[in-house]
Amino acid sequence: MGTMRILDHTGDTTVTWSVDDAESVAAAARVFDRLTRERKIPFARPAGAPAADAERIRTFDATADEIVWVRPVAGG
């Protein structure tokens, strides 16, 4: 089972899917596409791996253990 964690002003929202359930994969892919359009940044990592092992991804990967979304950091 994959998990998407969305870190934003509302807290930590979780979306899950199972590669054996096409409907849950499609729903997670729609969330991925929406967040990409909102210019949030996705990182994938294996379950239980440290944050340092996370890699930025550009497309939804239904086989990912965990996808974590963060907002871009604005600098000046």
How confident overall, as mean pLDDT?
A: 91
Gross geometry: globular
Q: Termini separation (Å)?
A: 40 Å
Strand order of the largest sheet: 2-1-5-3-4
> How large is the radius of gyration?
12 Å
Ranges with pLDDT <50 over ≥5 residues? none
Helix-strand pattern: EEHEEE
| Main beta sheet | 5 strands, mixed
Feature tags:
76 residues; alpha+beta; 5 strands; 21% helix
Please give a structural write-up.
The chain is an alpha+beta fold. Helices cover 21% and strands 34% of the residues. The protein has a five-stranded mixed beta sheet with strand order 2-1-5-3-4, with helices on one face. The model has no long low-confidence stretch (mean pLDDT 91).
Helix and strand layout, with pairings?
Layout: E1 2-8, E2 11-17, H1 22-37, E3 41-45, E4 55-56, E5 66-70
Parallel strand pairs: 1-5
Antiparallel strand pairs: 1-2, 3-4, 3-5
